[in-house]
Design brief:
This protein is of the alpha+beta class and 157 residues long. A hairpin with a 5-residue loop joins strand 8 and strand 9. The protein is globular. The structure holds copper (II) ion.
Amino acid sequence: MSATVRSRIARSRIVNARLLAALVLAAVAQVHAAGLPRTPRPADAELYIISPVDGAVVRGPVRVQFGLRGLGVAPAGSTGAAAEGTGHHHLLVDAPLPAMDQPLPKDAQHIHFGKGQTETELELAPGKHTLQLVFADANHIPHAPPLVSKPVHITVR
Ligand SMILES: [Cu+2]
């Protein structure tokens, strides 16, 4: 085989690899556009922060109690019947609402309660803070439609 033929074959392999990569990217983009599977929830379900109340002036640590109606709480990763009509709480601390069509971020401002907890205690710096709950399914993806509480604004002394 001449060097020219060999280099032509090599070049066509590169083109094929590029074409394959483009096709894979297109397929991934399509799946992304179609969205991840969302768990439906009752239209009348409610999510709210029981305490602290909006406008409260509190001393740390701040005990936050989660309120939920129309759905059940189950640990993250639950499957089958245990996952049906359930999910777990997520508390946003001084964070805007993240994307509702994918798993919620997990960091100091997006706290997951994947063991099924319904309250927590927060160490917050003195000053103004905003707390908001988002309920999500076993895979940390908000339900369809998303179930989000009203934000609660507090001042920590
Ligand atoms: Cu989660």
